[in-house]
Amino acid sequence: MPAYKEKNNPRWYVSTKYTDWQGVHKRKLKRGFATKREALEWERKFQLQSTSNMDMTFEAFVELYYRDIRPRLKENTFLTKANIINGKIVPYFAQRKVSEITAKDVRDWQNMMLAHRDEKGKPYSPGYLREIHHNLTAIFNHAVKFYDLPSNPAAKAGGMGADERAEMLFWTKEEYLKFADAMMDKPHAYYAFQMLYWCGVREGEMLALTPADFDFTNNTVRINKSYQRLHGEDVITSPKTKKSNRTIKMPQFLCDEIQEYMGMIYGLKKKDRLFTITKSLLEREMKRGSEAAGIKKIRIHDLRHSHVSLLIDMGFSAVAIAERGGHESIEITYRYAHMFPTKQNEMAERLNIEGMAM
To answer: Which of 26, 73, 147, 314 is the most buried (most CB within 10 A)?
Structure first.
């Protein structure tokens, strides 16, 4: 179809026919192009997208991918995914036809990611590399499943980076107590870290807590929401998974501390957020506290790993730990298997006794 010049206007427009997903014939009008070439290029991309033709560019397919997945994801999850894709994947593959991208192309892209160094000479972490590749694989999986791409070149190329478990760090109880002692001069941060370590809640869950979530008669805290900062605004969403909706039993000393903290906040209402601090502030305070305590630096999320490690060391089962943390029990078994005490010697001894009795 040709492009047209607007009347009394230097801009161009296109009017093109297409068939929608229900088989209905329609017409699409798009105005405001600076040049005829831009108008025709937009029309070509639109036609490829409307027919799901894998000769479309990777950049054009990503637009389709976003359109398909966005209604199914939480806004913060989508924004995190889009940030990785737009920043680390689209710039490399943008104008390549989806149908022509090969496993070798993916390997070349991987090598570029592996060679990257920031201004301090540091590479991407193994976990981040794995996450980048996971997103590329997901895009091609979507093309294979829903748009008839014959195969997934990212799957053929193989992954990069390391499993998150290899990067898992945690503090022992002794290390955490040193850290907590160093943090007592900043009550707003100290009590937040107490919740993170002794209850094993996620950072967003902790930041969403209100006084109404606590039951000090039964020593419990209810987890049924999560805090995010999106587009410059505070947003409260549902928790990460269905399992994340839970009630946690708190130790008595922590109940006493949280009640003490609530008493420090003037005019605190039942539905007010208890911890009105930013994630960046928590990160700064964690760095300051770990340096002051003379212990290794870990991430805020690693406090959750530390809580699980403590419970394993205390002898609790994967099922019980999963219920408290809002995990699936299989996830606890898989991710923390190396921390559980082995029963192999006991099994062998019991089998030996059974065998000798024959």
So the answer is: 147
CA 96, 66, 33, 18 torsion: positive or negative?
positive
Helix (H, G, I), strand (E, B) or coil at 328: coil
- Residues whose CB is less than 8 angstroms from the CB of residue 354 and which lie 6 or more positions away in sequence, other chains included: none
Q: Tell me the H-state helices in the chain.
A: 36-50, 58-69, 75-84, 90-93, 103-115, 126-147, 153-157, 164-167, 173-183, 187-199, 203-207, 252-264, 279-293, 302-313, 318-325, 329-335, 344-356
The phi-psi region of residue 102 (left if phi > 0; otherwise alpha if psi is between -120 and 50; otherwise beta) is beta
Contact (Cβ atoms closer than 8 angstroms) between residue 236 and residue 224? no
Q: How far apart (Å, rounded) are the C-alpha atoms in residues 277 and 185?
A: 16
User: pLDDT digit string (tens) for 86-95?
Assistant: 999 999 999 9
* Other C-beta atoms lying within 10 Å of the C-beta of residue 287: 11
**C-alpha distances in angstroms, 344 versus 186, 331, 348?**
46, 21, 6
**Total residues found in the chain within this entry:** 358
pLDDT at 3 over 90: no
pLDDT of res. 163: 58
What would you report as the CA-atom Rg of the chain, rounded to the nearest whole angstrom? 27
pLDDT attached to residue 195: 97
Task: Indicate the SS3 state at residue 122.
Answer: coil
pTM: predicted TM-score of the whole model, two decimal places: 0.67
pLDDT greater at residue 140 or residue 20: 140
Query: For residue 325, what are the contacts with CB-CB under 8 A and spacing of at least 6?
Result: 200, 304, 307, 308, 332
Spatial distance between the Cα atoms of 78 and 250, rounded to a whole number of angstroms: 33
Q: Residue 43 corresponds to which amino acid?
A: E
pLDDT tens-digit series, residues 313-345: 888 888 888 899 887 766 676 677 666 666 566
Q: Mind giving me the DSSP string for 124-145?
A: PPHHHHHHHHHHHHHHHHHHHH
Amino acid code (one letter) for 189:
A
- Residues in contact with 357: Cβ distance below 8 Å, sequence separation at least 6, in sequence order: none
Is the CB of residue 322 less than 8 Å from the CB of residue 332? yes
